[in-house]
Amino acid sequence: MGFDLESLSEATSGAIGSLVSTTVLYPLDTCKTKYQAENQSQHQRKYRNISDVLWEAISTGRVGSLYQGLGTKNFQSFISSFIYFYGYSFLKRIYLKRSGNKKIGTKANLIVAAAAGACTVVLTQPLDTASSRMQTSEFGKSKGLWKTLAEGTWSEAFDGLGISLLLTSNPSIQYTAFDQLKQRLLQTKLTHESGTESSPEALSAFSAFVLGALSKCVATILTYPAIRCKIVIQAAESDQENNEDKQQHGDKKSISGALNTIWKREGLLGFFKGLNAQILKTVLSSALLLMIKEKVAKTSWIILLALRKFLFPTNTRLKAA
Fold this sequence. Notes:
The protein has helices at 5-24, 26-37, 50-59, 70-99, 106-136, 145-150, 161-166, 169-186, 205-234, 243-251, 255-266, 275-311. 69% of the residues lie in helices and 0% in strands. The longest helix has 37 residues, at 275-311. Helix 8 runs antiparallel to helix 9, helix 9 (205-234) crosses helix 11 and helix 9 (205-234) packs across helix 12 (275-311). It has a single domain, classed as Mitochondrial carrier domain (Mitochondrial carrier fold). The two termini are 15 Å apart.
């Protein structure tokens, strides 16, 4: 099949979009994650709402700690997005080539997206675990990537792997919805010239932002209880926990343990604690990512085509996307 430049272009633009959106929204992400990670009954809670986390950072003079773990998070986001977008684009092109169809259907798109998501999760889970522990550490006490991972066993680096695999349904729903809406939106706008090289189809920044926000909002609401459980599983131990809390912290390392702990301490509504903040962060992040990806994709495609012609001048021309 040869080297797939279009898949590489998709992966590169997606990874750049993820890097920018993660950095811009990181303080919000830290506040959200610390708020979600707290698993106490109502009268014992340290944070009554997400703004309490921000106020703690300000009042203690540790505003910079809102960025603790940013390097690891950016590294994880870049690698994850690159693997996901490359795998998604590559598998989709294989399906279209073998099926002979011009467009991929919704069911096939879901399967392709889930497969790409599962591969991404397995390969990047240790980075995800370390990032969550660094974010949920006490302000000013976060450790580096290697030290965070070295504190536990190799198996502990994969804490939450099962639920992370379950959550591959989230981007599957999101990107499938986005891709289908994008195809319909561009259907009447774009024309293809046979035998010429063309850049991948691109949405306007505003259209990409709106479609990304809508698709991510639906996916987040449907999968939020699992998201909350995952954060509880991966959260770092607090220095203020007593022996009983530390024992229960170990019990929360499984999906059933996290579900049981949230139910006992917070009840049914506990599974939706922080939902508003999650929607705000994920919708903004996803929309920003896809907006940047759409704008970067065209540039990266042109650069890759130029490199291809320079490195392999005798190769045949690429077919139109």
